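User: Hi! I have a protein structure encoded as tokens and I'd like to know what sequence might fold into it. I'm fairly new to this, so please keep things simple.
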């Protein structure tokens, strides 16, 4: 019978290993960016948001309202900064509102 190791690992550490071994970090970043957009922009903007996609370092947000798109255009740099702070890294370099 194989010898058991009595080392205890936290679930967080084990999940990091699984994510690294299976190359899942980019997929998880895409999900986290959607959550960060909703959290930072609030329910009002989310009700007009059709989709949020991360492609390379470009965040593509599809909006239902052209008026909202125009308003958010003025604060693109601030939005990028807030999302990067929320994500904890330099994830988004460019924001496209379509």
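Assistant: Happy to help. Inverse folding works backwards from shape to sequence: for each of the 98 positions I chose a residue that suits the local structure. Here it is:
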């Amino acid at each position: 019978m194989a010898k058991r190791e009595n080392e205890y690992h936290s679930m967080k550490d084990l999940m990091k290993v699984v994510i690294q071994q299976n190359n899942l970090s980019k997929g998880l970043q895409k999900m986290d960016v959607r959550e960060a957009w909703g959290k930072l922009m609030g329910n009002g903007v989310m009700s007009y948001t059709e989709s949020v996609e991360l492609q390379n370092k470009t965040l593509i947000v599809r909006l239902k309202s052209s008026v909202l798109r125009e308003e958010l255009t003025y604060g693109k740099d601030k939005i990028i900064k807030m999302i990067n702070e929320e994500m904890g890294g330099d994830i988004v370099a460019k924001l496209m509102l379509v």
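A useful reference point when you look it over: The chain has one domain: 26-97. Feel free to ask if any position seems puzzling.
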